[in-house]
Amino acid sequence: MFCGEGSGRSRSLHPVRRGENRAVAAMLRWILGGREAQGAVEKSPTLFIGEEQPKNPFTELQVLKGHFDIVRFLVQIDDSRFASAGDDGLVLVWNVETGERLMELRGHSQQITAMVAWSLINADTSHTSIITASSDRSLSLWDPDTGNRVQTISDLQSSVKCLLVLEHLDLWLSGGNELCVWNQDFKLLCKREVHSDAAITAMVQLPKMHVAAAVDKEIVIYKLAVSSKLEVSVQPFRQLTDHHDSIRVLINVNDGLFASGSHVGELIIWDAVNWTIQAYEHILWEEPHCDGQAEIRFVSQKQSDMSIHHLASNGEVILAAVGSGLYVYNIHSRNVVAYRKMAHDSNVLHTMLLSDGQLMSCSEDGSVRMWEMEPLPLPAEPASPGFFGLWSFGRSSKQTCPPVKKVPEVPILKSLELTGDLIGHSGAIQMFLSFGEKGLVTCSTDHLVILWKDGERQSRLRSLAVFQKLEENQGLC
Amino acid sequence: MIGSPDVVALTKEDDFGEVYPDPSVLPEDFSVPLFAHAANANPWTKTSYAKFSKDFILISEFSEQVGPQPLLTIPEDPKVCGTFDLNYFSLRIMSVDYQASFVGHPPGSSYPKLNFVEDSKVVLGDSKEGAFAYVHHLTLYDLEARGFVRPFCMAYISADERKIMQQFQELSSKFSRASECLKSGNRKAFANELQKKLKDLEYTRSVVHKETELQKMNNGCYSTQAIEKANELANVEKSIYEHKDLLRQITSYPNRKRQDVECLQPESEAPAKATGSDVAFPFNHSDAEHNPADGDVSDPRPSYTPQLIKAKSAKCFDKRLKTLEELCELASFHQTMDQLKSIEKSFRGDLCYIYTSQIDQILLGKQKITNFLFESDWGNGEPAKHFEVAGLIPHLDLPQAPDGSGEPTSLETCTSFGDSVHIKLELESVDGPAESSPSDLTQETSEDAADIETKGSFSSDKSIETLGAVSPSNLHSHLDVMGRRGTSDECSGTENGIFFDRSTVSSANAPYEKSSAQPGAFSLLDNDSTVDVYHTETLVKVDTACCMGQEGFIFEEPEPVHQRCGETVVKQEPLSLLYGDLALQVDFAGGEAAHEHSPSAVLSFPNTLSEDVARMNVEESSDTTSYMSISTSSDRAPSPLGHGNPVTVKQKKKAGQSALKFIRQYPFAQQAIFCLLSGRTLVVLGVDEGTVRKLVNALSIFVPNLGRYAEQVQPWLCCPFQLTDLQRWKLIGLQRIASPTGSSMLYSLSRYSRYIGILDADNKTLRCPTYKGTLIGHIADHRTQIKRGSTYYHHVQNMLTQLTAKAFLYTFCHHLHLPLGLEDEDAVVQRRTTFLYHLGFSEEESKIVHYLSGLIKQRYVQGPCQRGIQPVFAFNYTTSCLYKI
């Protein structure tokens, strides 16, 4: 399970400057009275979608106030509830339908570094709890129904960076400078130091009682063993050292594959059983050498522009947030399906794959953008794959040859078309959470959580409420 | 009818002309000019011939020393009374006090007895002065006064006889309340006084007793001095007994009258002021008749030291009578004055205005669901409304039951008298008013021996007519007669007089609408421009079956609403609700008779209350703006919006002036207004605070759900705004500054540009979604003929009211929101669209209805306060464009 990044490195280096650029461009547009003046800031004219967005269903918003600092995590509790947490150490439970704040879970004195929901299913009842980890070196289990802190462990040796729940084992793991295995009752079952300066930043569950953990540039495969006496032990089993820079994301793709992304834009797809590399992509966002501008761009390009901040997958494709761009990779055909280098004005922090080739991404520029993968109309469209560097490596050739630029064999590229954007936050959007037709929740550095909803649906629901009340009151009075 | 104008005609004293001549009662040869003072262009004003400029309240006293004298007027401004002779009028009104406030030794009783006399309520007129008055007589107790009573009266003086007669019930109940307040204070003060007097007497008795003993010792039991002293002692003892009896009487005053709790609130013993002044002027007492002890001065002090009462009587005219303040406790006095002031305020304006307001209020009361949208001072719980809605309901039922059984039975004192008048009135209404004469009446009323004096005064001066001494028991007949009379001469005007919106005849649960269709809406009269009475044509005939979802609805003549604008002018004073059932022929202007199936609709009316009407009238009738500025100089600058004060209608009217300027000046005013009405926040950007504030103020009258304190408006903001601000404020004045803050402000402007319209006051540009419809053209036509702000404000209110009505209709029609049978959502959407189209809304304009409907829904479901739940901010994605001058 992906637990979110605890490190501060994912924050933007230049969000302010970029924001200003955008503002200036926008003002320019206004003053000129049109929207032709995109300027040099955004190369692609479609990136500014304008104010007419017929495909954007979110026409209503609710600002949920309650946090006092950056809100970093959102976790869904059930169909109608979610929890938000962030640097103020508060965990707030909200109702997604009404926007009501249901609970305020107080206890952590410092920022929250990881949060997961844990559903305990007993016979026919299921109950969801929330586990939080904080910089105050404590772990807590909360009951979102009552707001009680059910369990708490403090005075850990180091703060926990990520959490992983193994529901079928009724166990959960915490990762930091050490990997700990806990049971339902918050009892430490076993502990394993990480033999490295770095800490575990992400963990995923693999088949056959294995867990993959990202530790700086390495992926460490741990094996969990449960003895007959229900004693649990965890052993490092294998170290995968194929990344050249620190690993930022680790996700499960499907039963047989998992993927990792690094700070320099390496995307590696691994076999989940024998941990071999299935595909290796190094995304460089190389500029075409067509005009003078490109030179400057090339020089100014920074590594962080290629850093993979987030990966999302639906088992078929992987959506990677690379710098401020988006990158869609098809697992079966092993090629790039679609990409957009400058999908946002700043680093993309979170992405999501919806059905029907719809994507969503949020960024440090404070906007959520909705995309649609559309087949390119004409081959004449300058959709040259030369925009990016694409390397496919076999495991054998990995370290030997210098990267060779290759034109993909099957250029069935689709374009990523912007269908709508959500503007509301005044700071970087850290994360979002979709409740389907009930709406979308975003959280941001501006301390706000915003609930985006389909205005028409809400209006319908309100009408229903009106007529219900009319019936109760037996007429207007 | 008593005192009706025919009396004047017969007296032929002067060329007094009734403004509303009743052709049926005027002699053929007597032609009265319709408007004696044609200079006054307002046909409804009735004060043109009177010597005072507007209605006022007069308090007079029948002083035992100097006779009738005026004490004070409300308002106190001497200009109000003008050349009107208060002394003369006091004499008139005090002289008709028939009431037998008999105190003293009743026959067969040897002790003085207090009578708890009911107040009497008399209506009288003085044609010479052009004054008519509701006179409320009351008596206050004063230990030093003759018979312990001081007769007072409070009179509401107006030049409009009909106003007095038709507002009698209201006047009576309000003045009764004020009087009750005064009297309860007086009773307390009287009891205090008695207690002090008793202490004095006790002390005197002990002193006299001692002296008697001394005399007996010194001079023997039968010496002259001793006998004198013994007599004195006996007198003092008798006096004590009598005072105790009085105290018992006053303290056992039946509490049945004490329903009016508020009057009795100041229970605190506050005799400080009264006593203080009494110390300064010790006065003598002349109650020799009933007070054999001749106990003279009660000299109460805060910490009371009993005084010796000298057995010497002073002359009657030497003493200083207590003032009204002293007679009542101070708190009661001030409370009463406040009450009277509010009475004066609430009866300002002419009858038509009062009627309109009353109808207004009643209708508003029915439209609680939508009032919050555009009504400025509705629902804020102000008790200052000048009539009680509940109080009017009996009026409505009156014609059905003229001899209503609701007669107060407790008013024994008045009943017999009232009955006699009642009979008389019945006779007159049959015979025709021409035959009534003041003397008849006087005889009728003077049954008591005490009234001989009154009669004399009547005969001495024919110019005074007692219009009727009205007690509640005969009020009904009064109203009945007035009603019949009123309708006879006013129905002629109704066919083009009263129009009302079809939508006013709203859902059938309204009690009085069931009985018959009532006149509903009026548009306001304006002198210089055509008053636009828009008829919401029955565009949609939604009968109940339709709403139940069986039939679907039928559109009837989907003709555009707007064509009717400006066709009609109100030529007729609105009729009282009292007349509604009798003869009012409601003219539907559209000629349809389908009002039984009137659509369930809402409407909210321009609220014209809580306004200094007299001044307004002056303003309205004078055509120069310069005069306006003078006339309003007293309260020139109403405090600006958003300063924690409730927004008053006055402010809104001022805003109307600015709005008028705005729509004349800016060709894109319609687009700006569209922004506001469709719920898109409008940001007014500018360098100069004054300009921006003025624009914000002007535009504020278009903001739906403005809030009592204009919470939805931020007139001047100097820092960048946030998303939450857009949620909170629908109209923002923003400072344009060239500084880092300024650039971040511009940043927020451009960032949230999709949610806002930006009106640049410096460059005179507007950036907002396009609007090309015609609807707002009717609200804001830059070629409008309307010249005055208040008129324009009312015009806007009128239009917004229509919008509200349609939004209400849209919100509460089932079939527009719920699928019928197996329909899918698309069918419902389609129906909605068609519905709005037939209501006359284009696609753009539908957004207004959607927004208003959204507000209504939210309000209806959640109620006015939505604590805990964060507000919802709805918007839509549309392209904006830039408008320039």
From TrEMBL, chain B:
<feature type="region of interest" description="Disordered">
    <location>
        <begin position="430"/>
        <end position="455"/>
    </location>
</feature>
<dbReference type="GO" id="GO:0006914">
    <property type="term" value="P:autophagy"/>
</dbReference>
<dbReference type="GO" id="GO:0005737">
    <property type="term" value="C:cytoplasm"/>
</dbReference>
<feature type="compositionally biased region" description="Polar residues">
    <location>
        <begin position="623"/>
        <end position="636"/>
    </location>
</feature>
<keyword id="KW-0072">Autophagy</keyword>
<dbReference type="Pfam" id="PF11704">
    <property type="entry name" value="Folliculin"/>
</dbReference>
<dbReference type="GO" id="GO:0032045">
    <property type="term" value="C:guanyl-nucleotide exchange factor complex"/>
</dbReference>
<feature type="domain" description="UDENN FLCN/SMCR8-type">
    <location>
        <begin position="47"/>
        <end position="857"/>
    </location>
</feature>
<dbReference type="InterPro" id="IPR037520">
    <property type="entry name" value="Folliculin/SMCR8_longin"/>
</dbReference>
<dbReference type="GO" id="GO:0005096">
    <property type="term" value="F:GTPase activator activity"/>
</dbReference>
<keyword id="KW-0344">Guanine-nucleotide releasing factor</keyword>
<feature type="region of interest" description="Disordered">
    <location>
        <begin position="622"/>
        <end position="648"/>
    </location>
</feature>
<comment type="similarity">
    <text>Belongs to the SMCR8 family.</text>
</comment>
<protein>
    <recommendedName>
        <fullName>UDENN FLCN/SMCR8-type domain-containing protein</fullName>
    </recommendedName>
</protein>
<dbReference type="InterPro" id="IPR037521">
    <property type="entry name" value="FLCN/SMCR8_DENN"/>
</dbReference>
<keyword id="KW-0963">Cytoplasm</keyword>
<feature type="region of interest" description="Disordered">
    <location>
        <begin position="258"/>
        <end position="300"/>
    </location>
</feature>
<dbReference type="GO" id="GO:0005085">
    <property type="term" value="F:guanyl-nucleotide exchange factor activity"/>
</dbReference>
